[in-house]
Amino acid sequence: MNPRRSAALAGFTLIELLTVIAIIAVLAAILIPVVGRVRLQAYTAQCSANLRQIGVALALHANDNRGFFPLAGGDLRYDATELDDETGKPAWTVQLESYLGRDRSDALDPASASSPRAIYRCKTGGEAFEHNQLFSYFLGVRAAFVAAGNRFAAVQLSRIKQPARFVLSGDVANWSTSPFDADKDDYTQDPPFNYPSPYAAPPTAFHGGKLNILFADGHVDRFARFDPAKMSIAYDGS
């Protein structure tokens, strides 16, 4: 028998197999975190894109409604058959429906006409949050609420003195109502940051320790906490 052929048929030795396994383990330890970071970066970019598209829809709504953004109300489901008792309106997410185009291929359930669009959901919040919150974004209406004497009201674009600082929407990290609420707002709560202390870090920061915030001029930026130099929830920018 040819000794070289016999050695070839013998296969790997135990040491060689262990070496290969160790190399695979090292590569996995290096690659898995990298893949995870890349995935989170992609989710963060998609979340920013969602908010920018929502910003465009909000601007179109204001253009068609004498400069007013949608009127938010109480705790409303996306598929609710009844309107809000006080506002007489559906959820603000529903009010934007006609400004997001006729194609509903981006719906969470494209086969259902009442299925929420994926644009309202950020995947970066982790499974626990994502599975319990169908709607990841709030509508910034605090300024209108205060101006109306602490009553539900719609924000009027022309009254915003500093659009580049006015918080119009963003990630919800601090919420205490139904996960099916499609009408999240900041009338009396502080969805992205800790209420009543907005300068504290948010309880859940999705995007590398930060949250995506949409401003009235249409731009989106990330913040670890409320920054009064760059953010305002008041008409006059205070």
Q: Any key phrases for this structure?
A:
238 residues; alpha+beta; four-stranded antiparallel β-sheet; 5 helices; 32% helix; elongated
Task: Write a structural description.
The protein starts with a helix and ends in a 15-residue tail after the last strand. The protein has helices at residues 3-9, 14-64, 92-95, 126-132, 142-147, and strands spanning 137-139, 167-171, 211-215, 220-223. The protein is elongated and about 80 Å long. It has a four-stranded antiparallel β-sheet with strand order 1-2-3-4, covered by helices on one side. The chain contains five helices and four strands. It has one domain (13-223). Helices cover 32% and strands 7% of the residues. By secondary structure, it is an alpha+beta fold. Strand 3 and strand 4 (220-223) form a beta hairpin.
Question: How many helices in DSSP terms?
Answer: 5
Q: Any idea how many domains?
A: 1
Please tally the β strands and state the result: 4
C-alpha Rg, in Å?
A: 24 Å
Mean pLDDT: 81
Low-pLDDT runs of 5+ residues are 126-132
Helix content bin: 25-40%
Category from helices, strands and their pairing? alpha+beta
Describe the biggest sheet? Answer: 4 strands, antiparallel
- Report the principal-axis shape: elongated
- The proportion of residues in beta strands is 5-15%
The strand line-up of the biggest sheet is: 1-2-3-4
Distance between the termini: 91 Å
What order do the helices and strands follow? HHHHEHEEE
